[in-house]
Amino acid sequence: NGCMSIIRVTHMKMSHYASERYYASAAADVDKRQACGQAMASASLTTRQWIVKHTSGICGTGKMMKRWKQRSSSKCPRCEAPVEDAAHVWRCPQRETKSVWEQSIDGLRD
Question: Which of 44, 59, 94, 99 is deepest in the core (most CB within 10 A)?
């Protein structure tokens, strides 16, 4: 949930600046980077590590586990897609996975 908190704070900051029209488009891009930097700086070490691993794709997905010879297949264990990579973890069509994603997004809207 630490990551969701970081995303929520970053989203709130970006929404505030966008709604108040403080910055032009180019300046808003700088602000987004600053907001992300602030969010990362305020995150715990484990949360920062999780974010870096998932954005770089070097995390415990089927694709990487097969590469590391920890699994015989890169298949998604939930939906049986042929390759489970970091992007697939977020988009997996399996019902329970989608439910967790939708709950997380709804939490950002609150």
Answer: 59
